[in-house]
């Protein structure tokens, strides 16, 4: 292990760490010594925080170090920087307020070394794909020198976003074997992955590690975000993930004025998933037999395949870097809204046909193996198809910089649908036909919306409105026949 990445927990550990740092031939991109008198300002501290945090990310280290009380010759001279403990503790909030993503120190350590007071700032690595900025500016290191973060380094950190492995980051460090098996529901892990249950504790832990649920380090175990997100007995046991639990809320009527009940879903996603689909189904009237995830049952007004696929999508595609936000399911009298934090990576109008892109590929892969969602790329197709087959209004896809939302509507007659409902149904029907190698026609749209054959002009008006909205185009623009014309989505 790198001398820089040693993780101190006691005064003895800190002194041993300082011995190793002072024995280095020179400062590094992960280590800075300062005498740092009282004149060392918060902006000085912030620039070093940004630089060392970015370098820790690039060097794949758990932390970098800023040490006060050592001069350029690596002589221990001590420091009077904020000599009172409250003065040091307040720095965490001061730094977090002016850094990107509200990053702050892992910890600030005071230690007496060689008869002098030293202060060690333990600085976390920049988040995957997100360089650490101080007041909007990015800093880095060139050997021992503080510099602006080079464009090459900036792009290297940002490029991680395409291959971010938030799932492999550590949710809880240094746990005993017994504690790991208390925190994670390992029996559900083996049952849902359809694996034989090992007869030894070592065998249990090896299988968890093979699936990236835990990592072995220094004779202890680290639980990964993936392991906690899927199999935590309680997500609140993991500080960074407590706010990522799914919220399921039922409302009276069609607004959020009156909440009927909120269903706790505080365990890992794999443990809560089936129950969420079942709970929604049990509280809605049944109407048709269908096969649902993991079992047979009478389906509610919303096909369980639609619910399970959209809930899974919300979990898979959420932005875990979004602060204080979690996936949420809001159930109203006439609709269900499924929302996840984060702007989608593709245009919501192209959800049905576009090759899928996920921020969280390991989570997505695990959930597919657990039969929590459809095969790659087929999910939204199935959602739209199921809505058509059950004569439900077309789902509405919405997005902003902060969230992605899908709205499922309960059954409505053609006469109860407004213009937007009809245009949305027409566009999605054309998309579904296109990805199936066919073209939409007036007749196929009538069948989709339950319009009588004699009323084909009504379907023609919807097609005209959808073309005017820029969502549809005729296969043959020169054709004079509306009844027999064929149509494509705008992107085809």
TrEMBL record:
Segments forming domain Schlafen AlbA-2: 27-147
UniProt xrefs under InterPro entries: RecG_C_sf, Schlafen_AlbA_2_dom, Schlafen_AlbA_2_dom_sf
Protein name: Helix-turn-helix domain-containing protein
């Amino acid at each position: 292990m790198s001398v820089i990445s040693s993780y101190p927990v006691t005064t003895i550990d800190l002194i041993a760490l300082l011995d190793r740092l002072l024995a280095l031939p020179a400062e590094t991109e992960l280590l800075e010594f300062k005498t740092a008198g009282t004149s060392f300002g918060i902006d000085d501290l912030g620039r070093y925080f940004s630089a060392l945090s970015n370098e820790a990310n690039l060097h794949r280290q758990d932390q970098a170090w800023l040490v006060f009380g050592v001069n350029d010759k690596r002589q221990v001279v001590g420091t009077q920087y904020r000599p009172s403990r409250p003065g040091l503790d307040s720095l965490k909030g001061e730094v977090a307020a002016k850094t990107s993503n509200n990053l702050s120190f892992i910890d600030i350590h005071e230690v007496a070394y060689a008869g002098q007071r030293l202060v060690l700032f333990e600085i976390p690595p920049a988040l995957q794909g997100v360089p650490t900025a101080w007041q909007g500016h990015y800093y880095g290191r060139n050997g021992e020198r503080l510099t602006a973060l080079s464009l090459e380094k900036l792009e290297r950190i940002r490029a991680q976003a395409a291959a971010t492995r938030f799932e492999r980051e550590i949710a809880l460090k240094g746990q005993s074997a017994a504690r790991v098996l208390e925190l994670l529901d390992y029996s559900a892990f083996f049952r849902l992955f359809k694996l034989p249950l090992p007869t030894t504790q070592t065998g249990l832990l090896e299988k968890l590690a093979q699936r990236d649920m835990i990592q072995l380090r220094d004779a202890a175990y680290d639980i990964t975000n993936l392991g906690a997100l899927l199999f935590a007995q309680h997500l609140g046991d993991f500080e960074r993930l407590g706010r990522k639990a799914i919220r399921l809320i039922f409302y009276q009527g069609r607004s959020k004025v009156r909440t009927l009940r909120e269903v706790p879903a505080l365990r890992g996603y794999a443990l809560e998933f089936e129950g969420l689909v079942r709970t929604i189904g049990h509280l809605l009237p049944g109407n048709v037999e269908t096969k649902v995830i993991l079992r047979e049952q009478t389906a509610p007004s919303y096909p369980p395949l639609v619910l399970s696929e959209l809930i899974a999508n919300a979990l898979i595609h959420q932005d875990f870097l979004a602060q204080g936000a979690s996936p949420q399911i809001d159930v109203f009298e006439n609709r269900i809204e499924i929302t996840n934090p984060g702007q989608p990576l593709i245009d919501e109008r192209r959800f049905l046909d576009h090759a899928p892109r996920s921020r969280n590929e390991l989570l997505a892969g695990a959930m597919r193996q657990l039969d929590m969602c459809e095969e790659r790329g087929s999910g939204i197709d199935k959602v739209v198809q199921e809505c058509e087959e059950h004569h439900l209004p077309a789902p509405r896809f919405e997005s902003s910089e902060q969230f992605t939302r899908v709205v499922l509507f309960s059954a409505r007659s053609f006469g109860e649908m407004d213009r937007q409902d009809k245009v949305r149904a027409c566009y999605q029907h054309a998309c579904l036909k296109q990805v199936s190698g066919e073209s939409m026609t007036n007749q196929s749209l009538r069948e989709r919306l339950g319009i009588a054959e004699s009323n084909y002009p009504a379907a023609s008006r919807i097609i005209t409105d959808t073309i005017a909205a820029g969502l549809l185009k005729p296969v043959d623009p020169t054709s004079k026949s509306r009844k027999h014309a064929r149509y494509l989505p705008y992107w085809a």
